[in-house]
Design goal:
The protein is of the alpha/beta class. It has three domains: 126 residues, Orthogonal Bundle (Fumarate Reductase Iron-sulfur Protein, Chain B, domain 2); 180 residues, FAD/NAD(P)-binding domain, CATH 3.50.50; 155 residues, FAD/NAD(P)-binding domain. It is 32% helix and 15% strand. The protein binds flavin-adenine dinucleotide (FAD) and iron/sulfur cluster. The site of iron/sulfur cluster has 14 residues, from helix 8 and helix 9.
C-alpha cells in the first residue's frame, strides 16, 4: 500500500497549465512540461489501496490502479510501467485524453477529492519513455498466420499490437495519409502532441506490425479481396458518419462538420499547409454541440485568432454536483470546464438552431436560434426567445451516427448491423462473417479512447482464438460491457 496516511496528509493537486495568453500563441499541450513529476509521488500516496478498488471497474481497461500508485509513490518507475502496460497498450494516450471515469469511482472520492489517477498514469508512461523502459516486444516465434486490421485509431492499433505480439503477421490498412485515426486527425495538438503517436508507431514497426496508408478498404481494395489475402480481419474503422443539421441555410458557405474543420488544423501542425483551407481567423465562430468535439473546435478557433467563439448546446447546463440518480461510483454528467473553455468564448445552453442567414455571395453571416425547454419530456421551443447571433464560421459537432456505409466495406463483407446501426458482433467480437472481427467505435458506436483500446485488446484475443484455437491474450471487456455507465 502507498503511504497509509497519504490521503490525510496531502490534498489533491493536478498538473499545472500554462497561462492562457501564452498557450494560445502555440499549439503545444496546455500543461507546463515537467510540472507533474515533483508532485506525483505524493499524489500517488493518497491512494488508500481500499479493499475493493472501485476504480478498477470504473476503468474500461481494468487498469491495476492501486498497484501502480504504490510503485509511483515509491518512485519505482520501472515496476509502475510494467503494471501499467499489463492492461493498457497506450497509457500516453489515455493519460492525456481519458475523461477518467476511474476517478469518479475512486473510493476516496466519496468524501474527498479523488486520487489524481490520470496524472499518475501519464507521469509513469512519460518517465518510462524517458528512461528507455518502453522497448519493442518482438514475438519469440511466428505463427505463420496473417491478419489485416482496417483502421489505425486506438482500437486498430491496440488489436494490431496484441496480435503482432502473439506471433501473427499483421498489416494495418488506413485510408488517411497518416496513422492514428482520430488521435491524429481530430484531437488537436494542444490536447495531445502527435509525437506521442509517432513513437508508438516506431515501437510497433520494430515489433513487426506493417502499416499501409492511403488505402480505403471497400474503395481501393475490395473487402472480399482483402479477406482472401489474410487468415483473419479486424475491422476498426471507427464511427465516422457525422450527424447533420438539416435546417434552412445549411447549404451556405462557411458551415462545416467539425471533422471537416479539425483535421485541417492537425495538418497544419504536420507541415502540410501554412494556412488551413478553413480557418477561424478574424471570424465570429459558432460551434454547435456542447461535447468534447465542440470543445476541440473552440480551442482550435481561439488559436486561429477568431473574433469571437460561441458554443451552443441544446440540452440544459449540467449541474456541478452529482445528481441523485448518478451516485458514486458511477460516471456523472457534470458541468465541465475543459482547457479550451478556460481560454475564452461563450457557452450557451438550452438553445436550438432554427436557420442560417447568408450574404449575397452565399456566405453564412447569422445563426438564428430559439431557447428550448423540456415540456412533457420533449425539448420544445420557448415562444418569444428567437434571436440571431453573428456566425461567419459554423462547425457542427453533434456526434456521429455510425460507421461509414458509403465505401462499400459493410456490404462487401456482408456484415450485419445491430439495432443502433453499428457492426454487430458476438462475445468474441466476431461479426456474422467467420474470421472477421470488429473493435472500437465501428462496433460500439461513438465512444472513448479507453473503450477503443479495451475493445482492440478483446477483439485481438477473439481473433487469436479463431486462428490458433486458444489464446493467452487478455480480454478486458465483452461487447456489452458498460463499466459504470461511461
Ligand atoms: C474531435 C474528437 C475529439 C475527441 N476527443 C476525445 C478525448 O479527448 N478523449 C476520448 O477518450 N475520446 C475522444 N474522442 C473519441 C475517440 O477519439 C474515439 O472514440 C476513438 O478514436 C475511437 O477509436 P477507433 O479506433 O474505434 O476509431 P477511429 O479513431 O475513428 O479510427 C478509425 C480509423 O479507420 C480509418 N478507416 C475507416 N474506414 C476505413 C476503410 N474502409 N479503410 C481503411 N481505413 C478506414 C479511418 O480513417 C480512421 O483513421 C474524440 C472524438 C472526436 C471526433
Ligand atoms: S485509462 Fe482512463 S479510466 Fe483507466 S485508469 Fe487511465 S484515466 Fe482512469
Amino acid at each position: 500500500m502507498a503511504d497509509p496516511k497519504g490521503f490525510l496528509n496531502h490534498g489533491r493537486e493536478v498538473a499545472k497549465s500554462r497561462p492562457v495568453d501564452v498557450r494560445l500563441k502555440d499549439w503545444n499541450e496546455v500543461y507546463v512540461p515537467g510540472s507533474l513529476l515533483p508532485i506525483i509521488s505524493k499524489q500517488a500516496s493518497r491512494c488508500m489501496d481500499c479493499g475493493i478498488p472501485f476504480c478498477h471497474n470504473g476503468c474500461p481497461l481494468g487498469n491495476l490502479i492501486p498497484e501502480w500508485n504504490d510503485y509511483a509513490y515509491r518512485e519505482d518507475w520501472s515496476a509502475a510501467s510494467e503494471r501499467l502496460h499489463a492492461t493498457n497498450n497506450f497509457p500516453e494516450f489515455t493519460g492525456r485524453l481519458c475523461p477518467a471515469p476511474c476517478e469518479s469511482a475512486c473510493v476516496l472520492g466519496i468524501n474527498q477529492p479523488a486520487v489524481t489517477i490520470k496524472n499518475v498514469e501519464v507521469s509513469i508512461i512519460d518517465k518510462a519513455w524517458d528512461t528507455g523502459d518502453v522497448a519493442p516486444q518482438i514475438p519469440e516465434r511466428l505463427s505463420g498466420k496473417t491478419v489485416a486490421v482496417i483502421g489505425s485509431g486506438p482500437a486498430g492499433l491496440a488489436a494490431a499490437q496484441q496480435l503482432t505480439r502473439a506471433g501473427h503477421t499483421v498489416a494495418v490498412y488506413e485510408r488517411a495519409d497518416r496513422i492514428g485515426g482520430l488521435l491524429r486527425y481530430g484531437i488537436p495538438e494542444f490536447k495531445m502532441e502527435k509525437r506521442h503517436i509517432n513513437r508508438r508507431i516506431e515501437q510497433m514497426r520494430a515489433e513487426g506490425t506493417r502499416f499501409r496508408t492511403g488505402i480505403e478498404i471497400g474503395r481501393d481494395l475490395k473487402a472480399t479481396d482483402l479477406k482472401k489475402r489474410y487468415d483473419a480481419v479486424v475491422i476498426a474503422a471507427g464511427a465516422t458518419t457525422a450527424r447533420d443539421l438539416p435546417v434552412p441555410g445549411r447549404e451556405l458557405k462557411g458551415i462545416h462538420q467539425a471533422m471537416e474543420y479539425l483535421p485541417l488544423a492537425n495538418k497544419v501542425q504536420e507541415g502540410d499547409f501554412v494556412t488551413p483551407p478553413i480557418t477561424a481567423e478574424g471570424k465570429h465562430v459558432v460551434v454547435i454541440g456542447g461535447g468534447d468535439t465542440g470543445a476541440d473546435c473552440v480551442g482550435t478557433a481561439h488559436r486561429q485568432g477568431a473574433a469571437s467563439v460561441t458554443q451552443l448546446e441544446i440540452m440544459p447546463r449540467p449541474g456541478e454536483e452529482r445528481a441523485a440518480h448518478q451516485p458514486w461510483p458511477t460516471f456523472p454528467m457534470l458541468y465541465k470546464v475543459t482547457s479550451a473553455h478556460e481560454e475564452g468564448g461563450e457557452r450557451v445552453y438550452s438553445v436550438s438552431t432554427t436557420h442560417f442567414e447568408g450574404d449575397e455571395d452565399g456566405n453564412v453571416q447569422w445563426l438564428h436560434l430559439t431557447e428550448v425547454e423540456f415540456i412533457e419530456g420533449k425539448l420544445t421551443p420557448k415562444p418569444g426567445t428567437e434571436r440571431k447571433i453573428p456566425a461567419q464560421l459554423v462547425t457542427l459537432a453533434m456526434g456521429f451516427t455510425g460507421t461509414d456505409r458509403e465505401n462499400g466495406l459493410v456490404d462487401q463483407f456482408g456484415l450485419e448491423l445491430d439495432e443502433r446501426g453499428n457492426i454487430a458482433r458476438d462475445a468474441d467480437f466476431q461479426t456474422n462473417v467467420p474470421g472477421v472481427f470488429v473493435a472500437g467505435d465501428a462496433g460500439r458506436g461513438q465512444s472513448l479512447i479507453v473503450w477503443a483500446i479495451a475493445e482492440g485488446r478483446s477483439a485481438a484475443r477473439g481473433c487469436d482464438r479463431f486462428l490458433t484455437g486458444a489464446s493467452e491474450l487478455p480480454a478486458p471487456i465483452r461487447p456489452t460491457d458498460r463499466a459504470l455507465m461511461v
